[in-house]
Amino acid sequence: MMDAIDWNRLWRQGRERRTWQGKTRADWNRRAAGFARRNTASPYVTEFINRLNLRPEMTVLDMGSGPGTLSIPLARRVRSLTAVDFSTEMLERLGARCQAEGITNIELINGAWEDDWPSLGIGTYDLVIASRSLAVDDLGAALGKLNASAREQVVISDRVGDGPFDPALFQAVGRPFVPGPDYIYTVNILYQMGIHAAVDFIDLPETKTYESREAAMDSCLWMLDQLAADEQAAASRYFDRILMENQDGSWSMLGQRQPKWAVISFTPKRTTHDER
To answer: Are 194 and 269 in contact (CB under 8 A)?
Structure first.
């Protein structure tokens, strides 16, 4: 019965029904600075790295690296790391951090999931990770590339349910909220590839603070695209209700949501054509 279900097709259909729009290269280039500020010190980084089997002599591929949220701390613990992202601004920020912090064992590659990886110089690595970056149309093809690029282990983190999205914000501006498919599709596609993955979960019981009201709003408004004037006013009223200024001038959100992430790990499936 399981084999009769085309999970990759269901993934595509689920993404078509979602009510948020995927981000383009230009979107991520614009968001690079704020994204780097919000995520560098997140407890998510420690939680994810604690689930990796690291050795000093390892080589690592970080697919969808962003500004180096994981690449920087991982590079300090392994022999070499290749960071791949389709946003040039994200990679520029990662490169600047490497230079500022004296990190010399990271190779930067500007590339996307859909590209031909060998032509980009993406080879095989002991460990391959894809952290919160699998927002792709063809999930089966993406998972196949991760599998083919790993010698020892692949570790993915994927959204559980709503993930980082705030349904109350969508409701406040009068938009429906359908988050689209989550981690269970990834697990089932891997199963149909003959891969039995292990699944763990990261909960983030954190209370975030922001340097300004605008920074707090920006951390949420990325979820929405092209707000009309009435939607902007509704969003502002929503933030009036949930934002609180602290005594030190920082801002906090009342009743903050706590995203849950699935960490999916597996040993790569070898084929007769593999040359490892």
So the answer is: yes
Cα gap 41→43, rounded to integer Å: 6
Cβ-contact 201, 262 below 8 angstroms: yes
Give pLDDT, residue 38. 52
- Judged against a pLDDT cut of 90, whether residue 3 lies above it is answered with no
**Which of helix, strand or coil describes residue 54?**
coil
Residue 260: beta bridge partners?
203
Q: Is the pLDDT of residue 227 over 50?
A: yes
Give the whole-angstrom CA distance, residue 11 versus residue 109: 28
Residue 77 has φ and ψ, to the nearest 5°, of -120, 0
Show the tokens assigned to 86: 């389709």
| Residue 78, Ramachandran bin (φ over 0: left; ψ between -120 and 50: alpha; else beta) | beta
Residues 7, 13, 15, 18: what is their CA dihedral angle, to the nearest 10 degrees? -130
- What global pTM score does this model have? 0.86
- Give residue limits of the domains in the chain: 2-166+176-207+258-266
Topology at the third CATH level for domain 2-166+176-207+258-266:
Rossmann fold (3.40.50)
Look up residue 101 and give its two tokens. Answer: 């912090």
Is pLDDT above 90 for 209?
no
Beta strands in the chain (DSSP E): 59-63, 80-85, 106-110, 125-131, 150-159, 198-203, 209-210, 243-245, 251-253, 260-266
Phi first, then psi: give them for residue 47, nearest 5 degrees.
-60, -40
pLDDT at 32 over 50: no
d(CA 156, CA 93): 23
